[in-house]
Design brief:
Bound molecules: guanosine-5'-monophosphate
CATH class: Alpha Beta
Strand content: 15-25%
Number of strands: 5
Shape: globular
Structural class: alpha+beta
Radius of gyration: 14 Å
CATH architecture: 2-Layer Sandwich
CATH topology: HIT family, subunit A
Strand order of the largest sheet: 1-2-3-5-4
Number of helices: 3
CATH superfamily: HIT-like
Number of domains: 1
Distance between the termini: 36 Å
């Protein structure tokens, strides 16, 4: 999988955007969708994706990047207020060798808690309980 390849509209996030796959939504506007990661690396692991199709940040137009990161900051602040983590990691992977596993541009907001170890990246951990994810999403979106 190279950095530059055609966008595959059957990727899981494209299906979520089209409503063909469910997600636990945190926030949506005309440009971005934010939802809970189903294999969270920590409690409250949230994803933010641009609605416009692109495989990675290198292929995303600058205007969409601006909107995306504006929303990332806003949602990260809501995560902080809602969940009171000790820190927040913001990550974004480009290309399979860099750790990317879903090829629609996305940003991770990963709360860190001093007393809890960070889970593995890339969907290798345990699938979260959907009720628990919904509770977290409701708390975060209440702060937006
Ligand atoms: P990447 O590895 O590409 O940076 O991140 C992809 C993320 O998507 C991973 O953290 C993984 O847990 C998450 N993920 C994979 N499949 C699904 C899914 O079907 N729904 C949701 N909400 N997240 C997913």
């Amino acid at each position: 999988m190279t950095l530059h390849a055609p966008y595959d509209s059957d990727n899981i996030f494209a299906k979520i955007l089209r409503g063909e796959m469910p997600c636990v939504k945190v926030f949506e506007d005309d440009n971005i969708l934010s939802f809970m990661d189903v294999f969270p690396q920590s409690e409250g692991h949230t994803l933010v994706i641009p609605k416009a199709p692109s495989r990675n940040l290198l292929e995303t137009n600058a205007k969409d990047i601006g909107r995306l990161f504006g929303s990332v900051q806003r949602i990260a602040k809501a995560v902080e207020t809602a969940l009171k983590p000790d820190g927040i990691i913001i990550t974004q992977f480009n290309g399979a060798p860099a750790g990317q596993t879903v090829f629609h541009t996305h940003v991770h907001i990963i709360p860190r808690y001093e007393s809890k170890a960070l889970g593995a990246h890339g969907g290798t951990g345990e699938m979260a309980d959907m009720g628990m994810l919904q509770e977290l999403a409701t708390k975060i979106s209440a702060e937006l």
